[in-house]
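Feature request, filed as a ticket because there's no other form

It would be nice if the structure record came with a short human-readable summary line next to the tokens. Right now we just get the raw output. Example of a typical job, pasted below so the devs can see what we mean:
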Amino acid sequence: MQPRHLRLLATLTWLLVLPVAQASEADARAIVDRMEQLYRGEASRATITMKVETPNYERTLQMTGDSLGRELAFFRILAPRKDRGIATLKRDSEMWNYFPKINKVIKVPPSMMMGSWMGSDFTNDDLVKETQLIDSYHLDMEESDDQYLITLTPKEQTVTVWGKIEYIVSREPLLPVAQIFYDDDGEKIRRMSFREPKAFDGRLMPSVLEMQPLNKEGHRTIVYYDDIVFNPPDVTEDTFSLRNLKSRF
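Raw output as currently delivered:
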């Protein structure tokens, strides 16, 4: 075959493969976006129990969590009594914590977004989802009979400690199964598992999330969604103000 014919064949092969690759990434983006929106909706209010387990102690927190779109999130601790009233507010890329015992609001700097939230295995970034997966990562997807495996690698401009994230999603029903986080050396650092699907306000979703750091034996944090209501009328932009962050309840 002549070199010109070889070049033509290579070009035709590339044109045939390219739409498949584009469709695969578009499908992956649609799936991840749907999973990220699962607990949020346009607006939501959740009642949550968080259990932190370590080899030395256990603690349980009860809280509420409000959200409005991607940009606004608000969490307030209800129990135990010594932590009651501690609150976290996220507006766009900014985040604040309020500590009622000292009546002080502290802004969380970007350098602390990967730090632990309330001593748990979840980071500040996990809590407020500042890093949007579909915008900050390249996505590649593999399919099996029952699952999607989506590999996310950070874009050059993305500030993150993760070398890659593997996102496992079941096909039927379409629900998250696990997220596995790797460092830059390809070592697994932590795993978040999604369990016990339940219907909340007509929407099926995992009711239990477990975060397990794989480099800290005996540590894990379990989040139980006790209830979620979507589009409650009293969740408005006023909910996510610094004034409301300091309000007594």
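Something like this underneath would help us a lot:
Residues 21-245 form a domain with the outer membrane lipoprotein receptor (LolB), chain A fold (CATH 2.50.20.10).
The chain has one domain: 21-245.
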